[in-house]
Amino acid sequence: MIELEGVPELVDPVMVAAFEGWNDAGDAASTAVAHLDKEWKGEVFAALDAEDYYDFQVNRPTVFVDGGVRKITWPTTRLSVIRIGGDKPRDLVLVRGIEPSMRWRSFCNELLGFAHELGVELVVVLGALLGDTPHTRPVPVSGVTSDADLATRMNLEETKYEGPTGIVGILQEACTHAGVPAVSLWAAVPHYVSQPPNPKATLALLNRLEDLIDLSIPLGDLAEDARAWQLGVDQLAAEDSEVAEYVQSLEEARDTAELPEASGEAIAREFERYLQRRDPDAGPGGHATDGGDGSSHLRDNPSGRTRPPKPPRPESDDGDE
Fold first, then answer.
1. Whole-number Å distance between alpha carbons of 278 and 258
2. CA–CA separation, 48 and 111 (whole Å)
3. pLDDT attached to residue 2
4. Using one digit for the tens of pLDDT, what is the confidence trace for 87-116?
5. CA of 212: how far to CAs of 37, 76, 168, 287, in Å?
6. Average pLDDT, integer, range 51-62
7. Prediction pTM value
8. Radius of gyration (C-alpha) of the chain in whole angstroms
9. On the chain, which terminus has fewer CB atoms closer than 10 Å, C or N?
């Protein structure tokens, strides 16, 4: 049994985890957890034994000098706690590290041991994947779970993915089998500009996390960083006609995929708009609703890809489809 000393009783705790590596395109997910830790000044209370889970030839330790003394930082996974007060107090347990090289089941069981001891009510794992999505559009973020009841209650998708997976998928399934509610939030990162950082994807993950756990997250300079990132990618794309053409094809595919269906309800809404344009003072039944085209679901649509793009820089990351 894991014994925690010095960690007070938490209020409605949620565990938020992210791991560098295969499930972290553009470092978007790990940067999101690092942002939470920095903004709320998380206090580290535990670190997993690096020798149990990491191959040091794959994830090498680093040497640094501190006050004239040489020290070593070992690759590991650390847990920190954040106490959030206010009208709706809710504490967070942050898990941030590197995808383990081995013993994944033991790794997940150890994390679940901490979750049990701390009374964690929900586990949210952040991930980012490479996709055929244009950098000029809002970042698609999907929320998935293996729990059908949880999917209905929290308006999430029930995962139907089959294929290779990373530690995000393994941890979510471990939570499900242990009876711990678990959700994965995935941000889609443009594959033609996959190198980190990607503050736009990080911001999208944090915004979706806010909605999921009903908690206001201080965003700091992330919004400005996201705008600067997009302008930088715009400039890179403008310098290469092939990339610019490819981005345009992705935009067209994305916009087409998000068009409202020609249902009876959609036609009725369009008719209401027509009536309002003819008679702005029309009464009930003859007025348009503001933005009444319903909420659209952001998603990737690879049908717009006509040929392999010429990336502005060499790709340096992989993603989990």
1. 27
2. 9
3. 64
4. 778 899 999 999 999 999 999 999 999 999
5. 18, 28, 18, 33
6. 93
7. 0.77
8. 22
9. N
